[in-house]
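--- STAGE predict ---
source: upstream dedup step, 1 unique chain passed
mode: sequence only
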Amino acid sequence: MPEKLPEIVRNQPEDKPYLVTGRRIYVIGAQDGGFPQRGEHMPHEMWGIWLPPIKLFNGFWLWLEDDWIGKADRFVMEPFGCRFVYERKEIELERFQWAAHTRGAMALELTVRNLTQAPVQKSLALVIESNLMPVWLSERMGRKDGKDSVSCDLEKGLAAWKDQENPWSAVMICDQPLDAFELLEESRAGSGQRPCGSAGKACDRQGYKNENTSCCKVSFSARLAAGESKRFSFFFGGSESSEEEAEEQARTLRENREELLEEKKERYRKLGGRASLSFAGEPVLEQMYRWNQFINDWIQCEIPGVGEGVVAGYAEFPWWFGNDTNYILPALLMQGEVAICKETLRLLRRASLKVNGNGRVIHEMSNNGVVFYEGMTTETPQFADCVWQIYCFEGDESFLEEMYDFCREGMRWIESVSEEGLPRGYGISEVAGLDCMCCDVAILAVRGYEVMSKMAKALGREGDASCFEEKFCATWEIFHREFFIPETGFYGDMVAGREEIIKRAESWKHSLKSFPITPEDEIAGEASCKQDKSPRESKEKERLCRRMENVIRLAKETEPKSRRAYQLFGLGHSTIAVEFGYVTGKQARELLAAQEQWREKECFQIDGIMPLALGRRMQAYGYSREPEKILQVLRQTGEGFGAVMPGATSEIYPDRGCFVQGWNSFATMWPYFSVIFGVRPRAGQKELILQPCICPDMGKISLTGVMIAGRPFSFFLDFEEGRGRIRVEIPSAQWRVNLVWEEEQDGKPELVVEVCDAKA
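--- STAGE serialize ---
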């Protein structure tokens, strides 16, 4: 009997979001059954049914006996779809939604159950609102939204929508004939209320009106014997190019419904057998990890003519980023998803060569192929780091060869924007003016030189390897000299000259504007990328103002043409040197403790804690050898699990930002492998380096079926009377496992490591 996949149930659900995805199509609606019009990048439009690079529908609403059915009584999230249950007089309706894995089609299946001991007949209807429109940044391509038209063939159970100015099309096919079709009046469809109830009860549009949508109602009847159930299935397909293709997508899903649904379920069953976690006594952490495995599949997207790869998150970022990719790939590599990791990097490289042509890696690209921003300075070395990580897991030199020249050109570009060895420019903190010599920009350049030296050595390019090794050592020394602030005991946020920092701090006293803010990047409706990231609370704003006044005071005390390091916002970048293992042990503990003390005293809250930041903190605790803190942060991450959408952790802990965020796996999955077991795979040399960071409170942990070089590896941790035991199962005796276990810290548990053949 097939394994039953997990599900999460919410009774009396709210209008919080859910996500149903395939590689081509995705649906975002509310758990109570509605489709609120929400969004920032495209105001009011980011929810609904999307087939990138176009949107298909704003949503659909179920009617019962000529009125909106109301909110669902129960919502069930499953890896392959979701269900809504409506308990009504005499009948129960179950609405099941799922998306085909690789086709541009989704299914809406309504099961009507007669709860009585007598026959019943009910009139049902779907109100469907189309919105055939292009994705974000399409105005740069000259694409403009036209008015939608709709037609219906009742006998065939088919409705078709077409944008009158473009070939964008959508089709709905019912598995049985329809009773009636009604085109709802434009004034009603475009009014201030949803067209899903006679009194507009479902949800408010908050005054938003799109003149180009089309709204219709298709009716059907359910005649049920006592206790009988009956299913009505609706298959939606879409196409950027023609109505014929849209119909073919929907029809194929209808004709192969059972096979395609089972194929999708089986895909998620298999995911559970790869890089699977068991953590005794920590059911929430286990569950969060398992669902993040599913999320790693949900974020995989393929768009004809653009490419395929892993996107950042939903609802606001269903497209590609340079920096996000660096944090998304590790967990995917654990699961053996090497192919999609490579395709993501190929997509980013193509776009970067087209836009920049000099090795600089782009920041953000919409799913129509339009690049929003040419690239933060951090993203170029992060790309090289991604290439190296893939090689470490796969051991195939061909991908290194494919990407090497581009990565080398990228590091040459880094040198071109460098000053005395370290680059200037923007990093991951999107605050206008934070573009001098920034901590994360500088240390990631150091990391870039390090991985390039390793790449060159692996490819036998000894000259390049020696050159990059020298740059690595030199830039690390420069970084430490320039950024370390003895008075605080840790690294500063930015190094800048007196006039540079005074000018910026005077501005930051009042607001922290997002960047880019240059005229050429001013895009209509692009409020989210120019927003003020200043603290929301007045007390925090006052702290920001005082902090900047202190920065200005320090700057005025320096010589006019000199520069120094400043601790600005407490963003946590000073820990990156620890996260990469450049600072370890006692020195790392002292640095982390000093930064934490400073943050408690001086720091203000800008926009909440990100799970990504928690994941990075765990990486640092691994090198500072503080396992109790790793466990503490893991549990903190678990507190945000399901806060918005069942099965997901939000972009900002616990319930803000994107409700599904790809890089959260850096906190929910990756620490078990890279920090607790401390595995450093070297597939090319058939070697695993083990540098565990463990404590008795961790109890029993197993990580089984981690894919390295296409083969499964398993890791087991157990404690008995304070003594740790790690067992490593390897698929071949050709592999070596080398343990790194420093004895410098008092109270560290005794450790025994056993390596055995997985076949034994």
